[in-house]
Design goal:
With 336 residues, this protein is mainly alpha-helical. It contains eleven helices and two strands.
Length: 336
């Protein structure tokens, strides 16, 4: 075993004042470590959406009837609260796992050499979105699962996924100016696709807010709209997204676009087809909870795939200077 370095009083003071800088001075992560940390934050952002959906679909939304405690007298769920209390409290605990994943991404980005301020800022952006959504989640409980606050809670989670996707993508790029791979008209088409996808997700939250899955067995306020009409609007928007994606693929082929945007567009199209099939099946089978939960997961995948299409339209080449040599490469470089 190697000798444990001696920690001085000055080291402790420095760590207390700026722990991130203290760690960065003593650790340089491999670029793959930074990328994995960013991916872990993205995965946890999706997990928290899916488990939040499970809370709603099992009628456990008020399993812990108050916040930040589970009850007025207990921080955690109690046996008397039954399974709903454990499900709701379990989802709250996963927020801490999400915070840990985001924290790891921030520390890894801050410690990377050379230091990339933009990457660290994306990590901190995720942190503040998580904090804001945690507070909003508490408000959702305190107002008795008001459907408008539930919809806002889901949309803020969608924003978190967006930032996480961008950070994950940026770990594979340099900080040089982006170079477009396609023309402006194609980029504008993709921005329209992104905008309609956001609208599709937003209307999906209205479908949930007006539909039968209120999130609790007691009487919960619903959005005063005809659920089936909103569902039909949601389906129309889904077909618009599918049509735009199909058209984009043909446009990219026509302009002889690079393979990257074509692959991302193909992936999005396949995910949309699977998500659409799932949506129709759940509609005609009276919304079984398992299929609704799978549809929520599919919504996350659609959003991620859409953002990856957008990000694939430009490149930031990684220069050799931007990538520090790994421990295995350093001796070879020195001998060369």
């Amino acid at each position: 075993m190697g000798r444990v370095p001696k920690v001085t009083r000055d080291d402790l003071v420095s760590a207390a004042r700026n722990p991130l800088a203290f760690i960065a001075d003593r650790w340089t992560p491999d670029p793959r470590t930074v990328r994995r940390a960013a991916l872990a934050a993205l995965v946890m952002a999706v997990v928290i959406v899916v488990t939040g959906g499970a809370v709603r679909l099992t009628g456990s939304g008020l399993g812990c009837p108050t916040w930040p405690k589970c009850t007025d007298d207990s921080l955690t769920a109690t046996r008397a609260m039954g399974v709903h209390g454990y499900i709701e409290f379990g989802n709250r605990l996963l927020t801490y796992v999400l915070c840990a994943a985001v924290g790891w991404a921030i520390v890894a980005a801050r410690s990377q050499k050379p230091y990339r301020r933009s990457l660290t800022q994306l990590g901190w952006a995720q942190f503040w979105v998580v904090m804001g959504n945690a507070v909003l989640g508490g408000i959702v409980v305190l107002v008795g699962l008001n459907p408008y606050t539930v919809a806002a809670h889901f949309m803020l989670s969608t924003a978190l996924i967006a930032v996480a996707v961008v950070m994950w993508h940026r770990t594979g790029e340099s900080d040089t100016a982006p170079r477009p791979l396609v023309g402006q008209a194609v980029r504008q088409l993709v921005w329209v696709l992104v905008g309609v996808t956001v609208l599709l997700i937003a209307v999906g939250t209205v479908v949930t807010g007006a539909g039968p899955h209120a999130g609790d067995s007691s009487k919960v306020e619903r959005i005063p709209l005809d659920w089936e009409n909103v569902t039909k609007l949601h389906a129309v928007l889904a077909w618009i997204v599918v049509t735009l994606t199909f058209a984009l693929w043909f446009v990219l082929k026509a302009v002889d676009a690079p393979a990257g945007p074509l692959r991302r567009t193909r992936d999005l199209f396949l995910i949309l087809l699977a998500q659409g099939l799932l949506g129709y099946v759940q509609y005609f089978t009276d919304l079984p909870e398992v299929l609704v939960g799978a549809h929520m997961f599919g919504s996350c995948l659609v959003w991620i795939a859409t953002l990856r299409v957008l990000l694939s339209l430009r490149e930031r080449p990684v220069d050799e200077v931007d990538v520090p040599a790994t421990a295995a490469e350093a001796p070879v470089a020195a001998r060369g």
